[in-house]
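Let us practice reading a record.
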Amino acid sequence: MYEKALDNLEMDERIEGTYKGSFNFKGDEVRIHVDPDGEKLEDTITLAKRILSSLDAYDKKARGYIIENSLQSYNEDWREDDEPILTAMEFDKNLRLDGVNFLSSDSVDFFYSENNMFGGHSLIPQIFDGENFEYLQMYG
């Protein structure tokens, strides 16, 4: 269903050989970026189709990965003293998928906004093997 967004990609003038687009996911606009990074565009599109066709499952995995790697840090280090300690479910409600970048034939970055829990930083769970989230980056 979400893979249909790939049919409407436009050239991204900022970076030669890359494409951009967007689609609606759970009521929010999600940006997509496709960058073959020296590989065949078709291989990157194949990865994007596979991920987007199962986006609900990947979103659930990404959120779980963020919670596993960030909930404790939020509650212990980032939360203000007058704010309540969050459960995993409460933490998850603050996450919103903003973008997905497809890089080469096996790397994917999911970009989540975090409702200012971490000072407005993006939380970026990353896939490097085409399937599994292996790293979480905070950016911004």
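A brief commentary: Residues 55-78 form the longest helix (24 residues).
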